Amino acid sequence: MTFSNSLGVFAALWLAAVVPAAQAAGNPKAGQAMASQCAACHGVKGLATLPSAPNLAGQSLQYLDEQLKLYRSGKRQNETMVLMAKPLTDQQIEDLAAWYNSIPIQIAP
Fold first, then answer.
1. Angle formed by the axes of helices 61-73 and 90-102, nearest 10°
2. 70 near 5, Cβ under 8 Å?
3. Which end of the chain is more exposed for a tag (fewer CB within 10 A), N or C?
4. How many CA atoms lie within 13 A of 22 on its CB side?
5. CATH superfamily entry for domain 22-102
């Protein structure tokens, strides 16, 4: 194997390790359809309407996926979120994460 081939193999392995598989797994359109259940607290476009609810727009896929799974399992506690997350499948969680991640955000001074 030549040096350039080795470098190509290394680059492919590195990308596979660095780029999370969840990025391609969720369907933002399906997540958007489900997000109407979340809008009362987290807003239609992921910008919270309640002071105690976090903004979800632009959050990372990994963070959203992990937090919803923690609520679903009961390891993270919030009465409303545990009830909302409990019936979700892994695919639905990935779809919601993809939707909220896809919403562009702007930060202004």
1. 140
2. no
3. C
4. 18
5. Cytochrome c-like domain (1.10.760.10)
In the predicted model, residues of the chain with pLDDT beneath 50 are: 2-23
The helices-and-strands tally (H runs, E runs) of the chain is: 7, 0
Contact 28, 99 (CB under 8 A): yes
Question: Token match 């990935």: residue?
Answer: 94
Closest CA to 53 of 62, 44, 42: 42
Say how far apart CA 90 and CA 79 lie, in whole Å: 20
9 Cβ contact partners less than 8 Å away, ≥ 6 residues apart: 1
In angstroms, the CA 48 to CA 92 distance is 21
Q: Where are the alpha helices (DSSP H) in 2-77?
A: 3-18, 22-25, 28-34, 39-42, 61-73
Retrieve residue 41's tokens.
């607290």
What amino acid is encoded at 104 in this protein? P
